[in-house]
Structures
1.
Amino acid sequence: MNIEIRGVHHEVGEKEKDLINKKLGRLSFAEDGIVDLHFIIMKEKSGFKVESTVHFRWGHQFFLHADDHDVTKAIDLLFDKLEVAITKEKEKIKEHKGGVSPDKV
């Protein structure tokens, strides 16, 4: 799994990188299916916006974001969303693989 963390109008510090790497443990159930994870931490007028793009090995990808005045809270919110979205995506794949082929009906 390739992970990229970068900042826009914000210098990404070790604190943010360590927090993201620690939170990645919550996604360990899906690390076999995830090819790339991109994180962008942006400083905006109203606070911070954290965006993530997830690329799966079966070709699907999705984009999520979270906003907050505090960067750590924004990262926490984003990982809550990521966990739910990745779980849903993995369930879709499991359902599609479990069916009976038309040849055997």
Note: The domain at 2-99 is CATH 3.30.160.100 (Double Stranded RNA Binding Domain).
2.
Amino acid sequence: MTVKVRFAPSPTGKLHVGNIRAALLNWLFAHKNDGVFLLRSDDTDQARSTEAFEKGIQTDLAWLGLTHHEFARQSERFKVYDDVSEYLRAEGYLYPCFETPEELDRKRKLQRARGLPPVYDRAALSLSEADREKYRAEGREPHWRFKLSREVVQWTDLIRGDTSVDTASVSDPVLIREDGQYLYTLPSCIDDVDFAITHVVRGEDHVTNTATQIEVFKAVMAYRGEGTLPAFGHHSLLVGKEGEALSKRLGSLSIEGMREQGIEPAAITSLLARLGTSDPVEAVTDLSKLADGFSFDRMGRAPARFDMDELMQLNAKILQMTDYADVEDRLSAMGVDEQLWLAVRGNITTLNDAAQWRSIVEGEIDPVIAPEDREATDAAAAAVPEGTITEDDWSKLTNAVKEATGRKGKQLFMPLRLALTGQSHGPEMATMFARIGSKKAKARLSGNRA
């Protein structure tokens, strides 16, 4: 059996860390098993779906290295869904319901008031044909529900183990709206059967949905006369570092936004691949290596904590490992050469920080000199050699200041760093000193903007 998984976002918004984690887990599983990764655009909501969002999704996935083998678009398969839905109606799997949203809301409130679960009462099944015609004459069009078996549905979850849901505890799901628009479930199940999806891996918020969808799967396979029920896996959801819900923040955690912040794709995949597992989070730049160590057995059920600070630390580690040739096109656009890159890469969090160090070296800054440090910086200014300076000149300068002032350690080096760069932390000063140059260094050490 060839493993085949799918990632099926709706092109109604941008990808964020929550849904990209599902894409990554599916991709890693497929890659490890020499399988197929299908990207499916769930664009049945034509009013909200846009080509721009669809292209953005593909751009984000490609940037992360999550290349797909096959692509499908649901809006091109409406005829297929129509054919299956006709069969489901004829066989009694789908039944028409005429309640308005307000009527359904009143029913749920009454059930809760009586201490009952708000499960649809199947009142529509008691309607006569005359009743239905009356509603239609009033201008009401039905929505269509799938009639569940009201039995316990069981499966062995790839992550949660043996799992069961009593479908009597949930409402018959609405599969088709009054305006004829297909909701998520029916097209998804049809596509999973038709494209021979072997494993469906998604968030644990879909556990109850899976029980109802298994029954829809079986109905679709009965119509097709073939097909195999996929295996299901439900991973834990992401929460914030303090355990808070991420749902309100997901818009600010878009993949596009992270890319614009200068976060490396390997930092995102390294973190998301290991969150919620028993494996330590490590900076891994090769997706194949991440896939080799991937296993559902290592995934726990506790919520996975997403910490932006941890992501930034990973980003810094990855940049420390990055050769100039791997990012030359991006650095060249910033005016950063290999020598400067080698000097600053151990002291940056994002690639954009390298450009800031270039500005410090080649642009103008206001030196930071405390009154009590003026003696040391004046001595340093006097010790700056004329003409071209090298990294070796840095030790000569600091020795001269040490002799003139008696300073050593932090008291010696910090005032010089602040005067020359305006920063209290940063790359090795020998390289920075040589790059800043004699004229600019002398001016800054003298307290002048340069």
Note: The first strand starts at residue 4 and ends at 7.
